[in-house]
Backbone:
């Protein structure tokens, strides 16, 4: 089975039974395992399975402890949502997904956030190994001041407030590391300090690697750990031989087109989820739709997400 379009996917996953059988193979590969205790002593029931271990005896199904847990939406609809979310270059809004799949916008919003939970990497992916060039840069997410209503613009006399007296919310800062012709890693940070920027790079780039940044002072400590080269944008210098940050600048364009054009506004609370989505989709850009679907689906276990947790105030 190798589909290249949404109709082909829906033709294959024509009913819930087919979807369950396929997902059981993805998750267990023929050896059913209790998600509660890890036992392989399993009994089949009318609605799923039951653990045969005397200290457990708990019932479960293939969607237990996954992004699909307790869902009332058919797996066929879920699979279509995964395909749409991971194959659209700039993402898909919950309103549009709800229309496409004939579910409510609220349900579509929750589905998309569970899919983003699936796309989140649990362990760091190191970039820049083997002598590859690495670029790092920061960008700011938020609307332009000139496009805001006058009452919502920053007060010139008191920069901490808007013109209407409410607290002024600064733009969100996102730092990225990208390996040329390779993968990208993103992080939302509160400030562009040396501690935030250098520690993030150390988490993902092996020491001694060759890294290119702009002239921001937050990168000043990198030369103690890496072969650090800078491009002085303030002097309108953007390329010097192999020295440039154009690769990550291109990604920022893609990210902002998605955030502004598709999602329009992203809160601080959920920004990391959207960054995970864009990074995962970009890093899988050279794979086929079926390969991406299969790979992402394999990462869906152990990532259940409750609606009350998603909407809870921090």
Residues:
């Amino acid at each position: 089975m190798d589909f290249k379009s949404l109709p082909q996917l829906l033709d294959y996953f024509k009913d819930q039974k087919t979807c369950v059988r396929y997902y059981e193979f993805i998750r267990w590969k023929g050896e059913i395992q209790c998600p509660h205790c890890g036992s392989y002593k399993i009994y089949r029931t009318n609605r799923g399975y039951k653990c045969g271990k005397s200290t457990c005896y708990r019932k479960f199904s293939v969607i237990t402890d996954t992004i699909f847990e307790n869902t009332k939406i058919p797996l066929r609809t879920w699979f279509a949502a995964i395909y749409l979310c991971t194959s659209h270059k700039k993402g898909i809004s919950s309103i549009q997904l709800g229309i496409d799949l004939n579910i409510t916008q609220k349900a579509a919003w929750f589905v998309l956030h569970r899919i983003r939970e699936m796309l989140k990497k649990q362990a760091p992916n190191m970039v820049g190994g083997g002598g590859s060039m690495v670029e790092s840069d920061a960008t700011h997410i938020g609307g332009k001041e000139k496009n805001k209503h006058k009452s919502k613009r920053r007060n010139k006399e008191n920069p901490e407030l808007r013109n209407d007296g409410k607290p002024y919310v600064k733009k969100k800062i996102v730092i990225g590391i990208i390996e040329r012709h390779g993968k990208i890693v993103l992080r939302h940070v509160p400030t562009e300090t040396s501690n935030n920027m250098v520690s993030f790079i150390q988490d993902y780039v092996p020491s001694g690697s060759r890294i290119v940044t702009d002239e921001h002072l937050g990168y000043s400590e990198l030369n103690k750990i890496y072969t650090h080269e800078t491009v002085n944008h303030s002097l309108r210098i953007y390329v010097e031989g192999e020295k440039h940050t154009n690769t990550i600048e291109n990604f920022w364009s893609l990210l902002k087109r998605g955030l502004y054009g598709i999602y329009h506004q992203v809160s601080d609370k959920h920004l990391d989820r959207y960054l995970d989505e864009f990074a995962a989709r970009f890093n899988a850009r050279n794979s086929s739709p079926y390969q991406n679907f299969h790979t992402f689906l394999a990462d869906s276990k152990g990532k259940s997400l409750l609606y009350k947790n998603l909407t809870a105030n921090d």
In short: The longest strand covers residues 134-141. The CA atoms of residues 67 and 304 lie 4 Å apart. The first helix runs from residue 6 to 12. The two ends are 43 Å apart (CA to CA).
